[in-house]
């Protein structure tokens, strides 16, 4: 006879709850934690845990802005008072060059010239 019979069904894939995934991901992101070690402790494959971490990072929406404007010391609170103090403040730069440094001080009203100078120096 040429028959093949299957006695046991193939095991189904395990399904993990979101709470469990969150717990394991949080544990693996702790300082000093190893993804492989955390995966072994929870009976998981390390590659699967790395995939969960990657998916979690991609799915999280970062609510913190990438740029936060911070008030500068001595910065005027209104535009009109800022315009009045433009010439009194200055831009100061120290640029290291070989074994010496170049010090540049320009009034704030000359910001465009300062930017042009920096662009030239950085080329």
UniProtKB/TrEMBL annotation:
Gene3D superfamilies for this protein: Winged helix-like DNA-binding domain superfamily/Winged helix DNA-binding domain (1.10.10.10)
A Pfam family recorded for this sequence: HTH_Tnp_1
Record-level GO BP terms: DNA transposition
GO molecular function ontology, one term from the record: transposase activity
Protein name: Transposase
Listed InterPro entries: Homeodomain-like_sf, Transposase_8, WH-like_DNA-bd_sf
NCBIfam families attached to this UniProt entry: IS66_ISRel24_TnpA (NF047595)
Family: Belongs to the transposase 8 family.
């Amino acid at each position: 006879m040429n028959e093949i019979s299957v006695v046991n069904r193939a095991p189904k894939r395990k399904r993990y709850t979101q709470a469990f995934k969150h717990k394991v991901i949080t544990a693996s992101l702790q300082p000093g934690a190893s993804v492989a070690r955390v995966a072994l402790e929870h009976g998981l494959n390390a590659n699967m845990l790395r995939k969960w971490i990657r998916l979690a990072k991609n799915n999280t929406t970062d609510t913190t802005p990438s740029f936060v404007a911070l008030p500068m010391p001595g910065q005027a609170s209104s535009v009109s008072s800022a315009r009045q103090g433009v010439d009194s403040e200055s831009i100061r730069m120290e640029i290291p060059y070989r074994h010496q440094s170049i010090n540049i001080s320009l009034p704030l009203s000359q910001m465009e010239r300062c930017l042009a100078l920096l662009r030239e120096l950085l080329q």
